[in-house]
Amino acid sequence: MQPRARRLATEGRTLHVHKELFVGGRWVSPSTNDTIEVISPHNLETIGRVPAAGEADVDAAVAAARTSFDSGVWSRLPVDERISVIRRLHDLYVARLDEIVELQCHEIGSPITFSRAVTGPAPVLTLATFLDNAKRVPWEEIRPGVTGLDIIVRREAVGVVAIIVPWNAPQFTLIAKLAPALITGCSVVIKPSPETPLDSNIVAELTAEAGIPEGVVSVLPAGRDVGQYLVSHPGVDKVAFTGSTAAGRRIAAICGEQLKRCSLELGGKSAAIILEDADLAATAAGLEYASLANSGQACIAQTRILAPRSRYDETVEAVAAMMSAQVVGDPFDPNTQIGPMVSARQQQRVNGYIRLGEKEGARLVTGGAHPVTSQERGWYVRPTLFADVDNSMRIAREEIFGPVLVVIPYGDEAEAVRIANDSDYGLAGSVWTSDTDHGIDIGRQIRTGTFSVNQYWLDINAPFGGFKASGIGREMGIEGFNAYIEYKSIAPAPPLPA
Ligand code: NAD
């Protein structure tokens, strides 16, 4: 199948123009004339345009998903057959990986080095890992019942799944849901964020090319109102959501009211605990990725740095030196470490938090809310470090989602653990120490879904997700299938007495 976007070459740049929506595996005319303009955060030029899905498009996509699911055309295929189609999807994805990586860079403004090293390979690895783990799931098992008769325990697809993803890692968050949902036999309606609809349309093309039957996959770029309409739709059995905690609460409330299944991957305010024995130069270098990856627009970013009072000034100095050396600029320049924020709204939000930090009495060590002078256009902000921060300040409690870090002093390790756990969030965390075993022991005391020693790393073969307001449920690992499974027990009748 040929790509459906018209790539118009204008003044040396490419404009990705879609006129149709992918509904039930087919490209169709949208129900309205509304469009979404995709703007480069770097130079504010238009890079693409897609139709904005409306409620009638949601109705059509859910109807197609419902019909395909209930017919069994995909949901009742032997799992091995679904696996071989998803393996084809994996291979097709790999063949277009460079294009997907570049498109995401245009949409989000993430530095190309980060995209090539992380956001490009991660969805591929996720697809491959789910394909491997699918072989280890006991889709149907027989176990002895208490009566002495065998019971059949089946893992069946949950049904029609609404997949709603954010803009900051659109492919990774999408594939983490799409792969287990499709392997399990679900039909899906995907709603990408309006900032990043172009890369999802490539996935739409690939699902058709891989041979996923009609009806099973739809992709509807739209904003939050249409997203909420999709969540509320009676034809949807389950919502798989990644995004802000505020939106997650709203979605959970609707799902609760309707007794709809939902899994939520939400925000974070993770702590990096620096112990007295840490190598500060190595720690500051490690925080460059752990705290500032994707220009700080990462849910797992280690944004609260907890430093021992005995080494407080040294720690602030080392982190400040790392932050002020960051190269801010054109995402496609391989030297760039920090790109622009995704949107004007995000730039205003981050600068608003920087001003708030100053008002709250934190000490601005480097950065600030004034414009990045080397960039004439674009939604750039300065990598900013605050010291002398108290954990009760809003800049220490709320997710900023930009390159803004705070350093909080602590007395002893027990206090460090207490401060790390004193957060509404519980997504990720890290400890920086020369004693790895001791670091692991600290990890056992932290209430977060993932934790790392001397780095932050999310391993795709292990469960990922949040405690507390960071979410409900887990993605990745073999556990990542659970969100798409309904258990069914079948008890054969005992033989009738003679
Ligand atoms: P957002 O909540 O504003 O939007 C996320 C998606 O949900 C978008 O597609 C949006 O259109 C849609 N949406 C918003 N409100 C909705 C509603 N009421 N009903 C249905 N759909 C709705 O978040 P964002 O600004 O796009 O993304 C940043 C957030 O995502 C941050 O909080 C970040 O921490 C979080 N995030 C979490 C993870 C994780 O795995 N835990 C990963 C990436 C991002």
Automatic annotation (TrEMBL):
Gene3D superfamilies xref list: Aldehyde Dehydrogenase, Chain A, domain 1 (3.40.605.10), Aldehyde Dehydrogenase, Chain A, domain 2 (3.40.309.10)
UniProt superkingdom: Bacteria
GO molecular function: aldehyde dehydrogenase (NAD+) activity
Signal peptide residue numbers: none
Protein name: aldehyde dehydrogenase (NAD(+))
Pfam families: Aldedh
Catalytic activity from the UniProt record: an aldehyde + NAD(+) + H2O = a carboxylate + NADH + 2 H(+)
EC number per UniProt: 1.2.1.3
Family: Belongs to the aldehyde dehydrogenase family.
Positions of the catalytic residues: E265
Aldehyde dehydrogenase domain residues: 27-490
Main EC class the enzyme belongs to: oxidoreductase
Record carries keyword Oxidoreductase: yes
Organism for this UniProt entry: Mycobacterium saskatchewanense
InterPro entries: Ald_DH/histidinol_DH, Ald_DH_C, Ald_DH_CS_CYS, Ald_DH_CS_GLU, Ald_DH_N, Aldehyde_DH_dom
Keyword annotations: Oxidoreductase
